[in-house]
């Protein structure tokens, strides 16, 4: 009886414990489910922020293109303005020359006109003297010849008292006639000369008049051309002013978009930090088994080896195994894609993939050491259950509680942080996001949701700053060690005192001077 009672008690206890375990398991599943929902909401928020960031970058790129075109237009208009001004200056110089020539022609015309007046006066005087002499001769001839006709002239001669007197009178009469004829001839010759001079002067006057007309035409033509070019210059200045106003408007718009980019980066970083914390809390509820081999294809082997080379080419063999372990642990984790290539190409994770370095190495073939390291981790070799890595600088910056240093990388499983002393709160200048924005220049092209971690020499892209981890890397599980520049592993060479994505090789820093880390 006592045994039956004890057995009953034991069965009752087991039944109660079973119900408790079932209830606890159900409760844990519900919590995890709620956590996944929260993570999905955060991931959706990050995706939306990244979409806005992409659209903003495209808007910045489009505006910069328009600005560049407008700057070219301004440059062309400046050249056109300079050319038109030179043309106007040339026309003005020619107009001054023409005005001088016109003044000279007018002065010459005045001289010629004065000469014509003088010649006209002389001609009038000669004509008057000729007329007077003609009238005098006419009267004399009339008195000589017409008074008595031939008989009168004969009477004068016949009345002579002697032959001598006759000859004298005859000679006298001939002299008078010759004198009158000579004077008439002289006046006629003078008139002819004056007429010739007058004709010459009139021809010169006509020539000068034609020359002046030609100068006037040229002057009018140049004046019209000058007015036309001045009109073109005025139009060009107006166009230039409009284009410069456009540039000013573009600058204002770009300033606003840059501010928007910074705001989006800050929001993305905050959302990624939130997602990192959510993932850390969920992973804390259960320890996943990340070990075991993976049946990889030849393509996956090459991709893994190339990524190991890109991320840790300057690291020791153990460091290469560490990078390979992070990738394979992610493949095994429920928080990340379940294939090698899926993990490597997960958006905003491995900077060397995003920069094209991984594919470059694939095209040229990864080295034998990295192939061997890839083969080992695919076969199940691990140096730890790490899901993230970054440089020690960024691990300390993000106050990661527990990490293991291998070479230049700090490896850790969970994004678990400690509270900083108040005096150690990083200043705004030291924040990686700020460094990125200041040092890599907030270029929309350099910003991958802000700025590519590749542009971050000592910092990480805002996307990479999940507080170090990329929301995209965290499928619900964590952040790519490579993307944690301040959150996920940076190649030792990419460490400018900062962390770089676990997917970023030490060599990648030489190329990009930064990590994708922190995504």
Task: Describe the model.
This protein is an all-alpha fold and 519 residues long. 69% of the residues lie in helices and 2% in strands. It is built from twelve helices and three strands. Strands 1-3-2 form a three-stranded antiparallel sheet. Helix 4 packs across helix 8 (357-364). The two termini are 68 Å apart. Residues 430-519 have low confidence and may be disordered.
| Proportion of beta-strand residues | under 5%
CATH architecture of the largest domain: Orthogonal Bundle
Report the end-to-end length measured between terminal Cα atoms. Answer: 68 Å
CATH class of the largest domain: Mainly Alpha
Unreliable residue runs: 430-519
SS elements, strand count: 3
Number of domains: 2
Characterize the overall form: rod-shaped
Rg calculated over all Cα atoms: 56 Å
Helix content: 55-70%
Question: Quick check: average pLDDT?
Answer: 75
Structural class designation:
mainly alpha
CATH-assigned fold name of the largest domain: Helix Hairpins
N-to-C order of helices and strands: HHHHHHHHHEHEEHH
Distinctive features:
single chain; 519 residues; Helix Hairpins
Fold blueprint:
Elements: H1 2-146, H2 149-158, H3 163-285, H4 298-312, H5 317-332, H6 340-344, H7 351-355, H8 357-364, H9 368-378, E1 388-390, H10 392-397, E2 404-406, E3 409-412, H11 432-439, H12 506-512
Antiparallel strand pairs: 1-3, 2-3
Task: State the gist of this model.
By secondary structure, the protein is mostly helical. The protein has helices spanning 2-146, 149-158, 163-285, 298-312, 317-332, 340-344, 351-355, 357-364, 368-378, 392-397, 432-439, 506-512, and strands at 388-390, 404-406, 409-412. It starts with a helix and ends in a 7-residue tail after the last helix.
């Amino acid at each position: 009886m006592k045994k039956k009672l004890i057995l009953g008690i034991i069965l009752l206890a087991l039944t109660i414990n079973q119900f408790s375990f079932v209830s606890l398991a159900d409760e844990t599943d519900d919590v995890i489910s709620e956590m996944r929902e929260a993570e999905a909401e955060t991931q959706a928020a990050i995706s939306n922020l990244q979409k806005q960031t992409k659209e903003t970058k495209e808007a910045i790129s489009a505006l910069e293109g328009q600005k560049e075109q407008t700057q070219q237009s301004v440059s062309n208009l400046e050249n056109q303005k300079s050319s038109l001004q030179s043309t106007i200056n040339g026309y003005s110089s020619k107009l001054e020359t023409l005005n001088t020539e016109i003044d000279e022609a007018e002065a010459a015309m005045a001289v010629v006109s004065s000469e014509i007046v003088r010649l006209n006066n002389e001609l009038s005087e000669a004509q008057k003297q000729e007329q007077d002499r003609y009238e005098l001769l006419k009267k004399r001839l009339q008195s000589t010849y017409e008074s008595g006709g031939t008989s009168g002239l004969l009477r004068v001669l016949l009345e002579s008292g002697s032959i001598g007197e006759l000859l004298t009178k005859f000679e006298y009469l001939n002299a008078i006639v010759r004198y009158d004829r000579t004077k008439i001839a002289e006046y006629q010759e003078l008139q002819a000369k004056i007429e010739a001079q007058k004709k010459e002067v009139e021809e010169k006057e006509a020539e000068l008049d034609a020359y002046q007309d030609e100068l006037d035409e040229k002057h009018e033509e140049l004046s019209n051309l000058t007015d036309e070019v001045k009109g073109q210059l005025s139009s060009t200045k107006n166009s230039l002013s409009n284009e410069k106003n456009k540039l000013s408007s573009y600058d204002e718009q770009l300033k606003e978009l840059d501010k928007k980019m910074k705001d989006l980066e800050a929001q993305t970083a905050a959302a990624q930090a939130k997602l990192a914390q959510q993932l850390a809390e969920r992973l804390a509820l259960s320890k996943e088994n990340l070990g075991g081999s993976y049946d990889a294809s030849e393509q996956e082997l090459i991709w893994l080896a190339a990524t190991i080379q890109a991320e840790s080419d300057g690291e020791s063999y153990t460091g290469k195994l560490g990078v390979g372990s992070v990738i394979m642990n992610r493949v095994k984790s429920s928080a990340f894609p379940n294939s090698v290539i899926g993990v490597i190409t997960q958006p905003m994770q491995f900077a060397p993939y995003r920069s094209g370095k991984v594919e470059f190495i694939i095209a040229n073939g990864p080295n034998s050491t990295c192939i061997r390291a890839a083969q080992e981790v695919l076969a199940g070799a691990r140096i730890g259950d790490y899901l993230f890595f970054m440089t020690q600088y960024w691990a300390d910056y993000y106050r990661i509680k527990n990490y293991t240093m291998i070479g230049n990388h700090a490896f850790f499983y969970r994004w678990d942080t400690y509270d900083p002393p108040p005096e150690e709160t990083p200043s705004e200048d030291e924040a990686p996001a700020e460094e990125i924005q200041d040092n890599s220049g907030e270029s929309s092209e350099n910003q991958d949701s802000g700025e590519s971690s590749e542009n971050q020499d000592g910092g990480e892209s805002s996307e990479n700053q999940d507080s170090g981890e990329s929301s995209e890397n965290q499928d619900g599980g964590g952040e790519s060690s490579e993307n944690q520049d301040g959150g996920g592993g940076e190649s030792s060479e990419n460490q400018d005192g900062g962390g770089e994505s676990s997917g970023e090789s030490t060599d990648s820093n030489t190329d990009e001077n930064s990590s994708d880390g922190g995504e």
